[in-house]
Amino acid sequence: MSLSELYQQLILDHNRSPRNRGALEAPTHSAVGHNPLCGDQLQLQLQLMDGRVAEVAFEGSGCAISTASASLMTDAVKGLDKDELDELFAKFHALATGDESSDKLGKLGAFGGIRDYPTRVKCATLAWHTLRAALHGELGATTE
Amino acid sequence: MNVAELRADFPALQQKVHGRPLVYLDNAATTHKPKVVLDALDKFYREDNSNVHRGVHTLSQRATESYEGARAKIAQFLGAEANEIVFVRGATEGINLVANAFLRPQLHKGDEVLITAMEHHANIVPWQLACEATGAKLRVAPMSQTGELLLDELETLLTPRTKLLALTHVSNALGTVNPIAQITEMAHARGIPVLVDGAQAVQHLSVNVCELGVDFYALSGHKLYGPTGIGVLWGRSAHLEGMAPWQGGGDMIRSVTFEKTEFAPPPLRFEAGTPNIAGAIGLGAAVEYLAGIGLDAIVAHERELLTAATDAVAAIEGVRLIGTADAKASVLSFVVEGVHPHDIGTVLDRYGVAVRTGHHCAQPVMAFYGVPATVRASFGLYNYHAEIVPLCKALREAQELFA
User: Into how many domains does chain A fold?
Assistant: First the structure.
């Protein structure tokens, strides 16, 4: 397992130029994610219209994996409803922990290498846990 | 001191990680164990395994002699008396013992406990708990941007309300060595007892608790080349004698009836239940090993190494050192512009270089410097100059990868 399989170009690119970074004017859902292991924090805001994600944005400081994961996630969830989001969460979680192949997940499949770095799985899933907390009306999420 | 020869004493150092020789620079988290420690543990379980302070049979007698012998070795190592050495799980438990058995009974609403801005969570939270339970207030002595305590400000925080000063000897996040003797004089001039967290100090400095003049000194065995799960609280006899037990059970009593229990004198009063016998014996072997090398030689070697490593890492563009005190030991903490410490840790690991990345259980220190985490390389007696090269090479690789 080489470093380039973990840090794929897509991940490096999204770390350098994260998409959907910032704050929304009228969020309907939000949550703060926290990884107590490394101190990473992530604020996630969503604006749902007619039950689907219309706008999404994140802020916070994190490692390349968590930043790229938040960036790619925010791109991937636009237009989805809650059921679809839950389904995607489950798929991504399975990918990161090694139960799912990466071919069904499009760009998110870039995180397929993370399963060989067990200490970094939580970096990749922080944004997703925060997303779920926001959708289910919880104020915060922790990867602990 | 011949480092190449000493390295042969440490089996765990003789391995490769991801195909490269292990460069272990996470000694502030825990140190590797020399063969003499591993052998002492092995011998105890194979030959002497028995409970201590009970039983007249031969094995129990041998176990007791080894356990109490370890206490004597550690006492000598610290310049103390054996009856002042309480075996605990680690520095954390030692601090909790003092918080509960010494401080709590005399802490009241309006009193204060003084700590410093550079403490490990282990020297913050036990005092916070004691303060919350009693209505006392936790005060924090500030430090400078270089990571040095501001002694004038610390002195003004030592007031008639202060019931204890608790501070670290060496900062685990910054490497700062605090002037303990001088600070203790300031506190004692006002009748304030001093607890020192020595978890990061005893392996890097020659520590004599009597010369420091402090009241309590806590340390962890596993950072001192000994086993995990064993540590020491040293306390002045006068304090220990006056303290009630904090845990009850076997081994800490003189006599028990259902009406009343008479407690054993210190240190056994504070060692309820079967102790970590093997751990104590292993720690005894560790301090004997260190004394054999000589702390002065270790201090000189590590100082030279830290200076060389600091110069090499600081020369890399984009590196910001966190903690630049004049007096430092072992710890080189830094951040690299544009690369998160966790990513550096993963890249370094691929080069066989083990460092700690994160907040080092010192979140207030991270907040002070405005960083979420740092990379921390920390040196031990078995590290040597050649290991600075792969550290710097891997750092440059990380910079390139994330450029």
Answer: 1
* Domains annotated on chain B, with CATH: 3-30+294-402 (3.90.1150.10), 37-292 (3.40.640.10)
**Using an 8 Å Cβ cutoff, are B28 and B378 in contact?**
yes
Q: What is the DSSP letter of B176?
A: B
ipTM: 0.88
Q: Is B210 a catalytic residue?
A: no
Q: Which residues of B touch A (CB under 8 A)?
A: 339-343, 346-347, 350, 357-359, 363, 366, 372-373, 401-402
Q: For residue B69, give Cα distances in angstroms to B2, B55, B58, B64, B319.
A: 29, 18, 16, 8, 47
- A141 lies in some domain: no
Domain that residue A51 falls in: 3-136
Residuewise pLDDT in 10s, chain A (144 residues): 688 889 999 999 999 999 999 999 999 999 999 887 777 889 999 999 999 999 999 999 889 999 999 999 999 999 999 999 999 999 999 999 887 776 678 899 999 888 888 888 999 999 999 999 999 887 667 665
Q: What are residue A129's phi and psi, to 5 degrees? A: -65, -35
